[in-house]
Amino acid sequence: FFMGNFIDKTFTVIADILLKVLPASKQEKQAFSYYRAGMAAQSDGKYAEALENYYEALQVEEDPYDRSYTLYNIGLIYGNIGNNSQALEYYHQALELNSNLPQALNNIAVIYHSSGLNTLTMINEEIDDIQQAEYRALATEFFDKAGEYWRQALKLAPDNYPGARNWLKVSGRLFEDN
């Protein structure tokens, strides 16, 4: 706990110094200030406040690279509160602006993988064979999508996501280029 708190405080101090000394426009400084406030609220679990700040940052931030991280963080919040469709939407928006976000690709894959697992839990003896086959097919679609996104993430960050690499290998979804 102490180390995390120390790091948060250090980031805040450094961010304040950067805001004062960097040659940035008032609009850029305002966007960064909103982004920083959003990150602080998010790390405290104050998701509504974080979202407000991130949305404000998006109103004034023009740089696509910076916008991508704001969109990614919004996706993280929606994922944390279980709103996976919103999370996917924001991860995809972030990737449209910055295709070099393996963490967004990983999180998309995690959502699809989880959806596949959840679909498999719906299979039981009380439903007929046709329904069971439909659930298995849907789960396979989710797993294939997860594999697609994990392969992309591993192309960008080959040493990250060893669990994903192992799942791809075990499930037969790891191809030569990974």
Automatic annotation (TrEMBL):
PROSITE patterns from the UniProt entry: TPR, TPR_REGION
Location in the cell: Membrane; Plastid
Pfam families assigned to the protein according to its UniProt record, in alphabetical order: TPR_1, TPR_8
Residue windows of the TPR repeats: 31-64, 68-101
Keywords associated with the record: Membrane, Photosynthesis, Repeat, Thylakoid, TPR repeat
Any Gene Ontology CC annotation: plastid
Keyword RNA-binding: no
Membrane topology qualifier: Peripheral membrane protein
GO-annotated biological processes: photosynthesis
Protein name as catalogued: Photosystem I assembly protein Ycf3
